[in-house]
Structure formats: C-alpha cells, structure tokens
Amino acid sequence: MKKIILYFALLLPVLANAQVGGNGVFQFLNLTNSARVASLGGNNISIYDDDLNLAFHNPALLNDSMNNKLVLNYVSYFADVSFGYASYANSYKNWGTFALGIHYVNYGDFIAANEMGIITGTFSAADYSFNIMWSKDITDKISGGISMIPIYSHLETYTSLGLAFNAGVTYHTKDDFSASFLLKNMGAQLKPYYEGHTENLPFDIQMGVSKKLAHAPFRVNLTAHHLHKWDLRYDVPNSTSNNIFNEEEDEPKIDITGILDNSMRHLIFGLEFLPLKSFYTAFSFNYMRHQELKIYEKAGMVGFSWGFGLKLKKFGISFGRSSYHLAGGSNHFSFNLNLNNMGQKKVKKVN
User: Fold this and answer.
1) Comparing C-alpha atoms, which of 331, 334, 340, 332 is closest to residue 311?
2) What are the two backbone dihedrals, phi and then psi, of residue 303, each rounded to the nearest 5 degrees?
3) Nearest to 8 by CA among 149, 145, 136
4) Where does 2-113+120-232+256-277 sit in CATH, by number?
5) Distant-in-sequence, close-in-space partners of 254: CB < 8 Å, separation ≥ 6
6) How far apart are the C-alpha atoms of 75 and 172, rounded to whole Å?
C-alpha cells in the first residue's frame, strides 16, 4: 500500500492539470448515479458505512460490510439522456474487498444530415466506464483504496478509449466520524476521437468530512473539490479602459466578496436525518452549481438537492432529486440487494 501511494504521489505533477467543467474529455466520469449521493449535492467521499454506491466516488470507502451486495442505479436526466450504474462487491479476509461496476450514459438518437441539410438517417452516442475497485484496511482506523477505470466512448462514427485511476485514503472512528482524501480521474486518453487531438481527463483533488452527531439523529457532511485549482469562476474579458489620458490608475482593492464567492464554490454541504437505522432523508446545497446555473432574477432552488431511502434486511431503495435549473432537475433511483440474506428462511423452534 505504501508503495502504491508513493507511486501516485510521484505521478501527481504529471497528471494534475488545472481545469474544471467544460475542459477535457470524458466529463461523464463526474456524473452522479447514486440517489443517495445525488441528494447530498452530487458528491460525497467520506461517509463510511455499508452503501456500495459510495465506493464509486471513493474506493477507500469500500469495506467488508459491502460483501456480496449488488447495486443498480438509474437516472432520468435531461433531453432524453439517461444513465445508470451497476456494481457488485466481494470481500476476502487477507486480500481486502474487491468490487466491479459498469457506468453508462446513453445520449439517445440524433438526426444525421449532410452539409446541404439533407437528412441522411440517424446516429447514436454513448459513454461507458468499467470500474475495478479494491480497498484494504491499513490500520483499524485507516483504509486505502484504488480503482482502475477503462473508458470507451462512441459518438456517431467517432470512438475514443481512455484509462483513469482513483486513489483515496479514509480515516474513520467508532464514534461515526470519517475524513477522506481523494485523487480523482488520474490517467490519459489512450485513443482520441480524432487523431492528433488528445485531451486531458477531468482531474480533481478532493477532501471530505462526515460526522454523525452523538445525541441527535443527524449526520453532517462537507465535501471540498477542485483543491488543485483556486479560481473556479469564469474568466471575464478585460473591458476597454475609459482612461483616454493614460493616467496611472489606482491599484485594485482586495475583492473580499469575490474571495468568499470563490471559496464557497469549492464546497458542498450535506445533511442526513437518520431517525431509524432503516430510513434516511437527506438535504444539500452545491454552491458552485447554484452560482453557475441560476437565473439572477430568480434563483429558486437551483443548487439544492434532497432525497430519501429505505433499507431493509434483503434490499433497499432510494430516491434523489437534484435541482439544476428553474426548468427542471434530475431524478435518481437506486436499488440495492443484500445477497447474503437471500434464500434464508426462519426456523421455528419446537418446544
């Protein structure tokens, strides 16, 4: 484990390209497919429990309580776009916990036309990633995990291949406190869509903290993202100066409002209400999503998310709703199956 962590640390300067949404290839890797994570703002890398969906976001969260469990997710997105995820985990005493998953995005059918505007047929587009995850306890409080993610993308007649890696470390205690550090989407585009035009992957450095309150049924979550890039605001083109006499202008003052705004863009706030072990509701606020997608005249609930879930002995279901715009949001559905309890029958005792 120490050698693996050192290996990724040495590669970090090569793999870390400062870029955010819109720059780079395979942006679908950042889509949230879990209903629970969607209700927590679209990203959470620190909750340490038995939810296999969490390992998709941080392989260090993969643990033996996820052994022999299966998850299936479906998301109704925008403009007939849909995507989903399926994963299965198995734990081995001396080797740690392994999981396999497949993440897909179906962009639907498109009308094909030539340069004269004459319709020639239809074409489709889709992205796929295959998640191979492994995690092992380093100590009784620290676990480390790595995921290898082969990528295949098909857009009309263009195809692309890539390989990404996630590496994370999680610290967790018995009093329901956990903290994580994650290097996300390290790797490269192996085959570009168009020869000679290779793009970078959407690399990210993240940290997260989760804490369940000791005397109240709440868990608070804080996730920080894009820690390798301070300024997450869009560049504003320089306006033409009105100083026609070429006089020296005063030095710009420190923009406190801008500093606070940019700092908040790195953070996602989440809260879970846990009245029962088998039921939860969640609420969150993604400030960056709120700032980028709101309408200034009426922000509404843009950036807010909510959801709920029910976990029984053999299976569980959950729903998440994320608000992206006044025009609508995305609906997330998750189903998990505990194969350890399947086929078990209660045996009545005979006196």
Assistant:
1) 334
2) 100, -15
3) 145
4) 2.40.160
5) none
6) 30
Q: What is the CA radius of gyration of the chain?
A: 23
Residues 6+ apart with CB under 8 A from 151: 26, 29, 127, 128, 129, 130, 160, 161, 162, 163, 164
Handedness of CA 184, 186, 192, 197 (dihedral sign): positive
- Distance, in Å, from the CA atom of 266 to the CA atom of 262, rounded to the nearest integer, reads 7
Tell me, rounded to whole angstroms, the distance of Cα 48 from its chain centroid: 16
CA atoms of 218 and 220, how far apart (whole Å): 7
Q: What is the pLDDT of residues 99-145, one digit of tens each?
A: 999 999 999 989 999 888 899 899 999 999 999 999 999 999 999 99
| Tens of pLDDT, residues 213-237 | 999 999 999 999 999 999 988 654 4
Three-class secondary structure assignment of the chain: CHHHHHHHHHHHHHHCCCCCCCCCCCHHHHCCCCHHHHHCCCCCCCCCCCCHHHHHCCHHHCCHHHCCEEEEEEEECCCCCEEEEEEEEEEECCCEEEEEEEEEEEEEEEEEECCCCCEEEEEEEEEEEEEEEEEEECCCCEEEEEEEEEEEEEECCEEEEEEEEEEEEEEECCCCEEEEEEEEEEEEEEECCCCCCCCCCCCEEEEEEEEECCCCCEEEEEEECCCCCCCCCCCCCCCCCCCCCCCCCCCCCCCHHHHHHHHHCCEEEEEEEEEECCEEEEEEEEHHHHHHHCECCECCCCCEEEEEEEECCCEEEEEEEEEEECCEEEEEEEEEEEHHHCCCCCCCCCC
Distance in angstroms (rounded) separating the CA atoms of residues 202 and 228:
12
**Cα–Cα dist 77/192, whole Å:** 26
| Closest of 346, 350, 253, 337 to residue 68, by C-alpha | 337
Distances from the Cα of 26 to the Cα of 188, 189, 203, 315, angstroms: 10, 9, 11, 32
